[in-house]
Each structure stands twice: as C-alpha cells, then as structure tokens.
Write a structure and sequence with these properties.
Length: 154
C-alpha cells in the first residue's frame, strides 16, 4: 500500500511540476479568422456566402446534375493557398471520399455539381486547426481553395 501511495505522490508531483502552456482560445481564433476572411473578401471584391460553420464560399460555376453528399467520393482539381497568396498546393488532382477530407471541403463541395467550380475561404477550425500539417501551412491558418469538381460517385 505504501508503494502505491508513494507512486501516486510521485506522479502528482511530476504532473504539477510540468511547465504550464497557454491554453488555446477557439472563440478568439474563430473571431480572428473571420476578420481576416472578411478583409480578404473586401480587398479582392469577392461575393461570398458564409456558411453557419464559418466557411465562406463563392460558387463560380455551379456545374450540372446532382450534388455530391458527404458520403460521396469526389474527383477534383484544386489549388490551395494562404491569405497572403503563398501557394501550398499548386494545381493537383485528388480522388477521395469526402468524409476523409478537411471539414471545410465537406461543407463547401456539396454546393456544386459535376463540372462546377467553387472558391472556399476556410477558417482554421475547419481546416487544420491549431496544428501545422506540414511545410507551407502554419498552425491556425485560414485556407483558400479553388476547387473544380470533375466528378463524384456515391
């Protein structure tokens, strides 16, 4: 019993001595992202619609036919960049279940049909959040995607 008590005391002492880090404030980040997106929209004369999730989108070309759903597998061409214009994903082709993609794509892509094009302005919470997925995309980055929906299957 004394061993367990000592072990618990050591664990508590170890945890309490850990360096405290500043907590992430999701509401504050969402407000900052929204302000940045609004400034970008204004500066570039973009007519965009805001989804309740905070994702802004502009349907450039609606396309034709049915709309994909969250369970669809989509085949797209896309370009990804940051608000400062730096490109982190030059034009690329992707075929993937929509459920496997970032939340911003799951929200935006169902607004167009096959052959459609959409501009997505994605706040960090609907992108990669407060972590960096790799070089070129910092933590808490607002993402800008131009996506052409080539086809989809259910």
């Amino acid at each position: 019993m004394k061993k367990y008590f000592l072990l618990v005391c050591l664990i508590i002492a170890g945890i309490s001595s850990c360096k405290k880090t500043a907590s992430f404030d999701a509401a504050k980040q969402a407000a900052a992202d929204d302000a940045l997106i609004k400034a970008y929209i204004s500066a570039d004369n973009i007519t965009a619609t805001k989804d309740p999730s905070g994702v802004y989108y502009q349907v450039i070309n609606a396309g034709t036919g049915a709309y994909p759903s969250i369970t669809s597998t989509v085949n797209v061409n896309y370009t990804g960049k940051l608000l400062d214009g730096s490109v982190f994903a030059p034009t690329a082709n992707l075929s993937s279940p929509l459920t496997g993609l970032i939340k911003g794509w799951q929200i935006g892509i169902p607004h167009i049909n096959s052959g459609g094009r959409i501009l997505l302005l994605i706040p960090s919470a609907s992108g990669y959040g407060n972590s960096s997925p790799g070089a070129g995309i910092p933590a808490n980055a607002v993402l800008v995607f131009t996506i052409d929906l080539l086809s989809f299957s259910n």
